[in-house]
Amino acid sequence: MTGQQPSPVLAVDGLTKDYPGVRAVDNVSFSVEQSTVHCLVGENGAGKSTLVKMLTGALRPTSGSMRVGGSPYEPSNPSDARAGGIATLFQELHVVDELTVQENLTLGMERSRFGFLVKSDLDDRVVRTLAAIEPSIDPSARVSTLSVAQKQIVEIARAASSGASVIIMDEPTAALSEREVERLFAVIRRLREADVTVIYISHKLDEIFKLGDAVTVLRDGKHIATKKLSEVAGRAELIEMMIGRSVLQTYAPRSTVTDETVLAAEGLTSELLKDVSFHINRGEIVGFYGLVGAGKTEIARALFGADRVSGSIRFKGQSVGRSPKGAIASGIALVPEERRTQGLFTSLSIRRNISVMNTRRLSSGGVFRSSDERAAAVEYVQKLSIATDSIEKYAEKLSGGNQQKVVLAKCLFADADLLLLDEPTRGVDVGAKTEIYDIIRQLADAGTSVAVFSSELEEVLGICDRIFLLFSGSVQAEVTNGPDVDPASILNVVTGGGAHAVQ
Amino acid sequence: MSDETFITLLVASVAVGLFVVASVSVPNFFQPLTMLNLVTNNWAVISLGVGVTFLLVSGNFDLSVGGVVALSGVLAVWFAQSPDGANPLSTGLGFPTWLAIVCALGGALAIGGLNAFFVVRLSVPSIIVTLGTMMVARGIAQVITQGSQRNTNLPDDFGMLGNLTMFGTSVKLPVVLMVILVVVAVFIEKKTVFGRLTYWAGENAVAARLSGIDTAKHVTYLYLFSAAIAGTVGILLASEFKSGFSNRGTLMEFDALVIALLGGVAIAGGFGSVVGMFFGALILAVVTSAATGMILSPDWQFILKAIAVFLAITTQTWALAWRHR
Q1: Phi/psi of residue A168, nearest 5 degrees
Q2: Which of A224, A343, B90, B263 lies 20 to 30 Å (CA to CA) from residue A7?
């Protein structure tokens, strides 16, 4: 970074965002130099995405200011951000599969006369931009024929040709293979040479060292440091800054864990998973910890039979994993990742939600026993302390935490011997979180096996007896929880540092 | 009170309200016979509405029911006609009546099976599939009747079922069957696991699958169930008129859809009830019978139906939004 002008392309000053009861971003100030790759790191919940949303105009800051190229910048919606020269590459791609690459690049910028499209210099410009950053993509190809990585590059080219001076990339490598990652990095470096600044958000620390010029670390909504990467003394220092000493150790060893294997998975392999093997014991709480895209949900769905993978899954000696129906019948229940779209029947009452996985328990000859059904709903509402005035209340009208409890109740009602909980406390308030943890411990004490799939370190360290650390589709290490577990080394493993000690 | 109860009450009060308005303003409307006719004249559409309602709640359309009515009626007549007729249209297969009925029902179920196959196995949108099978069913009926009707050379007992009067009154068997069907359907919908599965599958198909529900099997049953009702209606109509007519039941699929929508059944699935559909049918019946033939000429019936549909759907959307504000 020689010959750099000192004027920053983007500066934030005292930026704060309050949500009811939470300060998601707390008085953050830092600046981003022009033509650099500026990395943004922090644990889940550190405030990265809130910060990005303020930069892109999706959220208004509670207080504080932003400046782009020296002039004040107050976006109130995403198109303001684009006009200000800030483009964003989200994890979900926004390309139109049915159009060609070129049509995608000019989408929304077409010139027309009397409703007919006319050719303009725009077409030449976008083709040149694309050729400059990735010559191997044919502008006349249909986008549907491209790989995910190529689509991403199309989106980057669109941002670059629309005149953006800053491109924010949120976990762009989550869905890419190693070779594709290399290609994306080459594209990013070429963008930098073309005087575009990239704000790069990733959990994968190797990528940050490989690519970044500077890094900003956030923790619990606060700004910890902004440093040149050449001044950072390796992964250990970065991890130290990310976690501080904030990981609470609330885990107490449980005495009811048996060594009787309930579930054994051998060599699970799919597009993402690479030869994943593990076992779960009766009465044990097992954690699967990894970042977004590490394969947690894939493992949970494979065990439940929701997606087919190769490899063998044996539950209580029988082969499972063919269908959710079969899984439930053999005693496995899943609390899925997205409660509203995958777990709940939102326009039905709590009562009509609870029985779905085990209708036999409440019916005789295919007819519901109304009084039993009501009694069961009342019982589970009390058991999980679901805050509602009636079992006839719609699931839709409950708070996030209570909705999650209804999904949990549904699974508990199935009388499963193995519960798979995918992000069980995502979007759940602190009170409900603690209650859900208590329920999980009680279940395990009573002999149920529980697998928790989580991207929150505090969560797995708080409740799990044994933790599998995942990185990009494979189990990197197995950790037995206890007072001497080192959060820093766990974070090192799941960010791609391998199962060795932190250097 | 749940949204469902609320909408059902809303629909019921509109039906009663319209009835009162019609009774006051239309001469000779408020008579026991007129009231009875509101239901008895519409037994066919209400019966079809039961199957259509269940399918809509499960998130699927069934536009084939009108075609199935024509097909099963024509098949029953063709199977029952004696084989020694003077011309092709009076020559059938000479089955005994009971066998002709069973085989005609089989034809109806085949259409239901075809619907289920395309919707469930090949994942083709149900509105397209059933639009296709609607034409297939009516098309076969048209070929068998050569675009006209078969009404000769039938055994005497063929006309029995459709014209049988019950309990010493003028109420015919099909009307009684319709009432039984509605009562049974309400029971299934409210009290049984089968009914609940329909809501689960329609409300959130992803969650249903992850909760271990075999949605494919359930939707297959619903299509067979709907086709069986439509087949029975077709056979009863053929028996009543002692004829198999390829244009019978034309537009009945739309009437069945309309009364379900008037009754508050949601096109998106997961919401609605048979009772609502029944009151929806009453609304349509009051509007069309009170106005056409008494105030306006019957040519106005489509306009009136259209107005009723638009008003009903707007009112429901507005009422639900108001409840949730």
Answers
A1: -95, 125
A2: A224
Is residue A434 in a domain? no
The pTM (predicted TM-score) of the whole model is: 0.79
What domain range includes position A490? 249-331+418-424+447-503
Please indicate if any CB of chain B lies within 8 Å of the CB of A235: no
The C-alpha angle with vertex A33 and arms to A31 and A37, in degrees rounded to 5, equals 105
**Residue A44: which CATH number?**
3.40.50.300
User: Is the CB of residue A361 less than 8 Å away from at least one CB of chain B?
Assistant: no
B37-84: pLDDT as tens digits: 888 889 999 999 999 999 999 999 999 999 999 999 999 999 998 888
B163-B169-B173 Cα angle (round to 5): 35
- Architecture per CATH, B3-323: Orthogonal Bundle (1.10)
Same domain, residue pair A148 and A272: no
Q: Between B2, B192, B204, which is nearest A366 by CB?
A: B192
Lookup: tokens for A291: 């970042």
A79-123 pLDDT per residue, tens: 788 888 888 887 677 788 888 888 888 876 666 667 776 666 777
Burial-class residue B168 by CB neighbours within 10 Å (0-12, 13-18, 19+): exposed
Note whether B11 and B283 are within 8 A (CB): yes
- Give the residue from A212, A243, A274 where a domain finishes: A243
**Residue A300 sits at the chain B interface (C-beta within 8 Å):** no
Residues A196 and A268 in one domain: no
Domains contained in chain A, number = 3
Q: Residue A50: inside a domain, yes or no?
A: yes
Q: How far apart are CA B72 and CA B102, in angstroms?
A: 10
d(CA B11, CA B262): 7
